[in-house]
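dumping the sequnces here before i forget
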Amino acid sequence: MLLILALVIGGLYATAVYLMLRRNIVKLIFGLMVLAHASNLLLFTVGGLVRGKPPLVPSGATAPPPGVADPFPEALVLTAIVISFALTAFAAVLVKRVYKVTGTDDSDALRMTDS
Amino acid sequence: VSTLLVLPVLIPLLSAAASLVAWRSERVQRGVGVAGTGALLVASLALADAVRREGPIAAQMGDWPAPYGITLVADLLSALMVAVTGLMGFAVAVYSTAEVDRGRRSFGFYPLLHVLLMGVCGAFLTGDLFNLYVSFEVMLIASFVLLALGGERPQMEGALKYVTLNLVSSAVFLAGVGLLYGMTGTLNMAHLSQRVAELSASHPHLVTAVAGLLLASFGIKAGVFPLYFWLPSSYHTPPVSASAIFAGLLTKVGVYALIRIFTLVFADAASVYRLLLWVAGMTMLAGVLGAVSQFHFRRILSFHIISQIGYMVMGLALLASPSAAVRRLGLIAAVFYIVHHIVVKTNLFLIAGVVRRLRGTEELKRTGGLLNDAPWLAALFLVPAFSLAGIPPLSGFWAKLAMIRAGLEAEQWALVAAAIAAGLLTLLSMIKIWNEAFWKPLPEGSGGPATAGRAGLAAMLAPVVVLAIVTILIGLFPQTLLGLAGQAGDQLLDSSAYLSAVGLATGVAAP
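..and the predicted 3d for all of it:
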């Protein structure tokens, strides 16, 4: 399972870089979205994959038994998802505005502020 | 004391909320802007004073002990950065009441400014790596909107590049945070410093890989060579008030994160320091050479931000030296340099805005004659310009002197040569601005002095005067700031006070 997820994460990063390097700025946004997913999935995976052992404290005990899943990465991923959702929403609106103002979706044509 | 730690985050949050409540009244928002940033300045000075007297202080949110809860920590570096943030926030808030146009002001300029300051202060004060990420994001989303607010074509193009590269940086940072948690099971920076020290013995390659990810992420934020290209493409496009606060604070948050992570968490990252020696030299030269070919006021200044970042990174990179005295000198110089640079660079951007107001343009070829029309502005320009170039007795001279002395002690001859060359070329750029904007007569057909633009000039000049006075004071009494920088440097080199403030002096078993 770990190997599969590692390959998926690698594939997502590769896809993200490929999309971001395209000249079309809409694909750039898709690239940023996939990049955020790749990082979130990485965060989830490196927290450790434990099957069928929720971190519940049995009645009478003060701590969960050893070997349960670590809930902390999920909390981090949740925060990261919310943040990347907001940033993606902003980026999507920005791309729409860029297209409206400049009349092009080709990032090679957006050189006005470079040198 | 722990209240003092929360205030620099809480005050901007409340000010942002108050400005949003007063969405319809742009005048109330202006008042809240000045009052809120003024309160932030007072609170941040009180915090800096407390930390100077008592050493590092920490607060645990909700009384959950570290490393399980959320920790806020202020050592002297953090406190100094927060104090300068307060000063810049207040200066820019006053300046913006006259500079930012009405449309932008009534579309949320002030709430965004407060949120930006909240993110910056949060990044300086957090003792937790994931909260550093969250603070970065708070700061970024506010800066995205501030950059794009107004929707002019150059802003749109600049914003696209700025947003893309900063989102990439955040994704890389998040990956680094995830891997670090997977390796150590903690994200509290004080706890991490202990766990990473254990791990470097058993898994040195894993530690180096994560250090590389964080280095790349903070490098993009700080704008170091070769990751700085987003900066000169975007910083000159928004209103001057926005780009002044960006220029002063945002890249310096990246530098702060570099210093914090590579002194506390990766306390002995020799390979990173050696790499940074190269990065520092190349950043200085690339930035200063980029400025030579520019004739737009704020674009010249943007390139100089990059070259100045090189000097700060040089202070951190000198940790590569085996000598304890050199390591200390380097960090002291870096802290001094950051404080000096924030004041001077913000001030130069503010002056660019005054020139723009008087002449209607920032293209130096189409300006001129300001020495006759506004001799006071020429005098005010010379203070930060000479300070940036390192002319005695201004603050930049002491900053460069400390840095170059540290470099000489470390026997990094090439890096010292690069630092001196960059200093001379900085002077060249400042003379170029002086010649074009102030000295030469106004070119034919440039419209002449725009007298209509003089309204509100007092509110724009007051912050410029105050920041110039701060620069002169640092220059005349450098020992005060050098003493503080020395204390901050000692705390960075010996993290035991930091660890015991957080409550982890004895170490914790892995959860």
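The first helix of chain A runs from residue 2 to 20.
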